[in-house]
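Subject: Interface between my chains keeps coming out wrong

I've been trying for a while to get a sensible model of this assembly. When I model each chain on its own everything looks fine, but I need the whole thing in one frame so I can look at the contacts. Pasting all components below, labels as-is. Any help appreciated, I'm running out of ideas.
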Amino acid sequence: MTIDADRLANRLEGALGSAVQRDPATLRAHAVDGLVPHIRCAPEDTSQLSAALRICGESGAAVIPWGGGTAMHWGNPPTHADVVVSLERLNRLVEHDDANLTATVQAGMSVAPLQDLLAARRQFLAIDPPDPRHSTIGGTVAANINGPRRLAYGGVRDLVIGMKMVLASGEPIKAGGKVVKNVAGYDMCKLFVGSLGTLGIITEVTFKMAPLPETFGTIVARGSLAQAAHLIDALFASALTPAAVTVVGGDVATAAGLEAAEASLAIWAEGFEEAVARHVRDIQTMAGQLGLATEMLDGVAHHRVWETVRDFGADGASPAVFRVSVPLAAVTGVLAVALGVTAGRPLRYVAHAGTGTVWLALDDPGLVAAWFPRLVALAQEYHGHAVLVAAPPAVKQTVDVWGPPPQALALMQELKRQFDPRGVLNPGRFVARI
Amino acid sequence: MARLKEIVGPTYVLTRPEDVVVYEQDAFLVARALPDIVVLPGSTAEVAGVVRLVHEAGVPLVVRGAGTGLNGGSIPIAGGVMLVLTRMNRIVELDPRNRLAVVEPGAINVDVTAAAAQHGLFYAPDPGSQTVSTIGGNVGNNAGGPHCLSYGVTGNHVLAMEVVLASGDVTWVGSRSADHPGYDLCGVVVGSEGTLGVVTAIVVKLLRKSQAVRTLLAAFETIDDASQTVSEVIAAGIVPTAMEMMDGVVMAAVEAAIHAGYPQDAGAALLIEVEGHPESLPRQMKRIEEICRAHAPRMLRTAASEQERLLLWKGRKEGAGALGRLAPSYYLHDGVVPRAKLPDVMRKVVEVGKAYGLSIGNLFHAGDGNLHPIILFNPREPGIMDKVVRAGEEILRACVEAGGTITGEHGVGIEKREYMRWMFSDADLMAMQRVKRSFDPDGIMNPGKLLPVGERPDVTVRPAMAAGMWT
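Reply #2:
Try treating it as a single job with all components included. I did that and got this:
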């Protein structure tokens, strides 16, 4: 639908005042897969956001919800991008109920300043999105961005216990609450986690918190991929409970400040001092028996490894990024096949062994057409799936980045119709171009 | 009828009054209704065939597992066809390397853990009913249990499900791998109380057993001391795997029944369990003991052996059953509050009991803030049911006012469908209706449950009440 941008901007200005922007440089900076919006607005509260959505809905204008802009490479290119709605002014920590181990945060708040506030009361949010200075709470939840410590603390879906959102109609709703157990009605939070802004715009999220660990450290084991696979098996057969178990390869190790090796296995242990010491001791013994060299990292070196892992594929440095998700035991097998397929071409990877998530990055986006179907087929052999997380728009236009449509697509399409009948929220970006 | 018999075989279609009467009730003992037809299918294909037929006929469909549900969710209040899934009870696949199991909905909760135990694994959600309740029923109600404090509820442990939709179509939601592309329908179907579809297979996560466990029993003079202790343990950043409270009323009944060694005259006791590496447990236990000591405990006892640990837990698990010694019947409630509000709300529970002249026992998941006030009563007393219901409502309202919820693990069913309005606006409820319509546009799946219908459920009491409900 073609929209009358001037008229729409006037109406939005009437409702939001100076929160509506149209200068070309700002708009260009908010392009999604090359599509430059006509208008950007930043509502100051939920009622302004409601008004903005109502006006956009009436005009049939496509709305692109925008947090910190760190996950805009996710999804298919939108069919339209008329109005970018920024959550930047909804950026407060609403409540940190430390005695209840919960916190309620507005969607536009960035993760790093939130963690600073939580740390003042010795707690943290156990989600590690890339670029936490810019990644926002709303974006992290809407895009379901998980980090390395998901193994120990669960994913976004496990940590969110309450939510407020504004639907496409402008209607504000809430789901869940601020208690850790709650089965009153459908679990609407789960529906919105990972819905990529296609059902409504999240304005506030309540999370379970975790106590800051007493101590932490990283054991790095270097060797062949096969040796790393054996160490992973030994680790998961033991009673150890690491926070993250991640294989890195290609030049990722160098970026992480590690010595080069075919594969480096980084194991993050945290918690009580006695437990961390036990991890270090046991893992060094296991690695030694399997012929891997180990080193122990703490402080800056520990952080450098995990920041590199966390930011992998989201820093814009790689022209093509894939995420392959498989059951836990298939991770190193998938890596071995992927390395075989590239046959010597540069392939960088970060693979979370405890959660079955393999990130692959290619320097040549021209290979996506040949690679993506092979990765999809490979993942499917293991009951898994592959997603093209980032690629130039021209490449993304040629595929569905989410892979083949899910079995329950008809249900998902019906949910989209129920929540956003005009299809104005992030049109085309989600699975099967919902 | 003939077609139903063709699909599942004549043995598995029940219509005689003496056969279907077995299915008129679940563990919400104050309501009942007869199904017109009970069908016991043996496979997904049979379920799909039956659902298609029911859909064509446009009659209500109610699904049931072991019938241990506490909210009346499986009572066929509008009649129709009841699907009983207890024949579909196989553990189809156990995959220790990928730490998952594929089970049919009728599989018993504790059997999954028993099967996984040979690999050092277990299935975490442990509702009080776990020795009889089915995984399908646990999924329908998003069941919890004592150890959810650190492990989470059923929804955190279900990876994927096969679902027969209202149309009779069969689909999978979720996946054995994380982050299945698309909306998290698996997350939505868990806890949907049979109102969205019939779950015919479930892929569950298995966890590795901890190497060591320590269990502490701490008895206090008052409920208040115990509540404060719970709040302070959580506030100190310690998350035990379980932190259960039992008040004096329950403790006395339990002690008389099983002699677990609980002090009979204390106001409340906490059962606190921590798991992990043997090296790190002593210091954690020490910190927990310090917090307990600040509240002048009557008794602090750490289980010295696995046998003693099991005995302490036996008291907890059989607590509700032991209440049969105190009154002919009881009404078990389920509400949750933010944990720092526990002392306030527990005081309110005591006040409500006094105001209504009712004896209330408490046996609950304190670490989660998940209360289970148990209102004791004699059903022969005229007008008692009204009083019991009103007292319960007052307690649940106090939970909501404290920032909590009307149910933490038992679900809404018919029992609490009208209470949903205490928490949710019309718009919030309409959003849930949109989900319902997407799955079940004709409204045949378990009608009258989970969402408010505008009238109170028909709650009556009959003198003959079975003992042994689940918490």
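Reply #3:
Confirming on my end. Chain A is about 35% helix and 25% strand.
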